Here is the input.
Amino acid sequence: MPHVRQTLAPLTDAKLRKLELQANAIRQDLLKMLTQAGSGHSAGPLGMADIFTALYFHVLNHNPRKPEWSERDRLFLSNGHIAPIRYTAMAHAGYFPKSELSTLRQLGSRLQGHPEYRLLPALENTSGPLGDGSPQAVGMAYVGMLEKAPWHVYCCMSDGELAAGITWEAALFAGKHKLHNLTWIIDRNNIQIDGYTEDIMPLEPLHDKFAAFGFTVLEIDGHNIREFVEACDRSKATWETPTVIIAHTIPGKGVSYMEFEPAWHGKPPQQGDELNSALKELRTLNGKIQSEME
Amino acid sequence: MPLVKAAKLSPKIFHKDIAKIPTRNGFGEGLVLAGEADERVMVLCADLTESTRTEAFKRAFPDRFVQLGVSEQSLAAIAAGMALAGRIPFIASYACFSPGRNWEQIRTTACLQEVNVKIAGAHAGVSVGPDGATHQMLEDIALMRVLPNMIVLVPCDAIETRKAVLAAVQHEGPVYIRFAREKTPVFTTDKSPFAIGKAQILNTGSDVAIVACGPLVYEALLAAKELETHGVSAKVINCPSIKPLDEATLIAAAKQCGAVVTVEEAQAAGGLGGAMAELLGSNYPVPIERVGLEDTFGQSGTPDELLEHYKLTAPWIIKAAKRVIKRKLHLY
Ligand SMILES: Cc1ncc(C[n+]2csc(CCOP(=O)(O)OP(=O)(O)O)c2C)c(N)n1
Ligand SMILES: [Mg+2]
Here is the structure.
C-alpha cells in the first residue's frame, strides 16, 4: 500500500469537552482499581490520564473489537509501571469489560502489575524494566517503514527512564533511519522514585538533546488535550524525522494531595478518606467541565 | 527435632511470635557497619534507595553514597572504575536489573578484571508479589554462578544477610549477595556461624538431606519437623554460599543420607539445584529432587500465594523428600 499522508479527525470543542469528561471518569476508575489492588502506582498513571484518553478516544486508528487488526496504530508503553492508566483507558474504550479492572495485580489476572504482551491483546509489548519499550517501538517503526505500512507507531515513556543508555541507543537508530512513522511521548513529570529527576540525574536541556539526535521535538502541556492532539497531527505530517512529544505533566494530576509528590510514585490511595477525598475532588472537577459545556 | 547446637539458632525458632524481618533490612544494617569499619566502602544506587535499604548508609555517609538514576549498566561499570581507584563499591538495585541487565558489564569489568565490586540484588524471587514476572528475578543465581572469580551468597534471614555484607567486604574481589522484599522469620542469631564457602547443618538426619538457601531454609526446617512425625529423619543444611560450595559438608551429607532435596526461590536449573547436581554428579551421585522454579516465569499475586502456587513451601518440600527417598530405595 502506498504511504498516504494521514491526518487526524478535527477536534471540535464539543469533542474536546467529551474527552475531558472521559479522562475524568477514567481517573476515578483508575483510583478505585488501585485501591482495590492494594498496591501499584498512582502518580504516573494520573499524570498520563489525559494523554491516554486522547490516544484511545481520538488519536489512535484502532478497533477495540478487533484488537489485533493488522492496520491498527501501534501503541507501545515503555514505563510499564503506569499500566493501570492503560488498562483503564482500554476498558473504557471497550477492549475488555470494566469489571475486569478489579482483578489488577491478582494471581491469574490478565492485568499483571506490569503489562504482559502475551496476556492482553494490543498491548504490543511487555514492560516494567525501564528502557526496554522505546527500542521495541523503534524496531516496529523500522519494519513499518520497510513495508510502507499504513499504521503509525506511538510509544509512551517516562522521564526517569531517560537515564537508561538504551533509550539513547534507540534514539540514535531512529535518527539514523529518519523514522517519521514514530512518535515518542515522554511523560515529563519531573519525578522518579528517589525524588526529582533534576536532582537524581539531570535531563535538561531535554529539548536540545532530542533535537541533536535528529528528532522533531514538540513540547506541550500534557493536560491540554487539544495541544496533545495537535502535536500528534504534526507528528503524522512530519516526513523527515521521528517525533518526540515532551508532555509536561503534573504527577498525580487531579488529586491535589498527590500532585508533584514523589512519595505517590508507587503506592495507591487507601480505602476510606484517602480514596473518598480523591474521588470527591474529581467529581467536583467533572461538574466544572460540564458547566463549561453549557 | 535434633537441631544442631553449634548452629546457635534462635530459641524462638518454632514459636508463633518469631520475629519477621526482610533480608533486605539486614543488607541495610550491614552496609552501615561496613561503612564504619572501612572507609573505602561506597554505595551506588539506581533510583531505588529506600527499597534496597541503602537509605541509612546514605544518611550516615553522604559523601560515600552515589545516586545514578535508572542506569544499571553504568552502575556496574562506574563501580568497577571506583574499585580500580581503590574503593569497595556496593551496587544496589533489584536483582532483575542488577545483575539482570548489566551482566556483561559485571562479567568484564568486575570478574575478568577481578576487582572489588559487590553486587546487591534486591527483590529476588516470586515473593516480590504483585509487581509480577518482570520484577521477580529467578535467574540471578545461575547468571552469577557461572562467572569466574564471582562469589555468590544467598543468606537465609536478616541477620545472616548482615554477616554476608561484612564478609563481602573482607573478601578481595567481586561478590553477589541476593536478598528478598518480604518479611521472613529471623531464625539464626548473632552467634550463628557464617563464612564464605561454608554450609551449616541446622538439623541432623539420615534419610534425606535437604539443602536450602535464602528465606526458604525456614520452610525446609518446617518440612523436616513435619517429616519427623512421619518417621522420616531429614537433615537440613543451610547453604548460603552457592559459590564456592562447601563441597566437604555437602558430599558427606549425600553419602550419609543417599538422597538430596534442594530448595530455592529461583530457577532450579542453574541455581542451587543445578550446582548440587553438578557437584554430586561428579563426586557422589545420589538421587536429587529440586524444589525451585521449574523453567517458568512468575506472575502477580500475594507473596504467600505465589510461593504456594510455584510449589516452594514446606508441603512441597515434604513431597519432594518422600519422592527422593523412594527413588533411593528403588521403589520407582
Ligand atoms: C531498569 C529499571 N530500573 C529500575 C526500575 C525501578 N523503577 C520503577 S519506576 C522507577 C522510577 C522511574 O522514574 P519515572 O518513570 O519517571 O517515574 P514516575 O514519574 O512514574 O513516578 C524506577 C527506578 C525499573 N522498573 N527498571
Ligand atoms: Mg517521572
